[in-house]
Amino acid sequence: MGKKTVIKQDASESLKEQEIIEANIKKDTGSGAIKRLEGTSVFINSSYNNTIITVADHRGNVLGWSSAGTLGFKGPKKATPFAATSVVDALIQKLKRIELGKVSIFVRGVGGGREAAVRAFINKGLDVQLIKDVTPIPHNGPRPPKPRRV
User: Fold this and answer.
1) CB pairs under 8 A, 24+ apart, for 9-17?
2) Domain assignment present for 149
3) CA distance 118 to 53
């Protein structure tokens, strides 16, 4: 096995990374009339690699979506709770022209950003009506892959 190198990130690199994320958020926001919607659904898909959040109305029409990858997070940073809260902030900015009424949150997956995303939506002042875990669980489906030997 080779030597492991530790990459140290100085303040200028982290500041540059934050500016890229903020620029992507501003690029995605739009303008228009303010609408009030009741019965909107928020779908949080949190995997080991990324967090994707979609907002739909009561008919299932997608109002907006965002993911950690579209905000500029790369590699393992996409699956962090910080990236999930950044995705929620970007989505709220994108949907600021739409006033979300009662919201139902559906969480799918086992990633690190699922709880952080739910808490971020609650902290934004949304009227959360329902939080439901819809992670698919197999009833003894195909055989799982063998565990890695490290």
Assistant:
1) 17/72
2) no
3) 10
Q: Is the dihedral of CA 22, 28, 31, 33 positive or negative?
A: negative
Q: How far is CA 91 from the centre of its chain?
A: 9
Residue 113, token pair as written in the block: 């950003």
- Chain segment 94-120, per-residue pLDDT in tens: 888 888 888 999 999 998 889 999 999
The set of residues, in sequence order, having a beta carbon less than 8 Å from that of 89 and lying 6+ positions away, is 25, 120
* Number of structural domains in the chain: 1
pLDDT for the residue 68: 92
State the Cα–Cα distance between residues 55 and 73, nearest whole angstrom: 21
107 located within any domain: yes
List the CATH number of the domain containing 76.
Answer: 3.30.420.80
Report pLDDT for 28: 57
Classify residue 72 by its DSSP letter.
T
Instruction: Round to whole Å and give the CA distance between 12 and 66.
Output: 26
Rounded-to-integer distance, Cα 26 and Cα 71, Å: 10
Residue 130: which pLDDT band, with cuts at 50, 70 and 90? Answer: very high
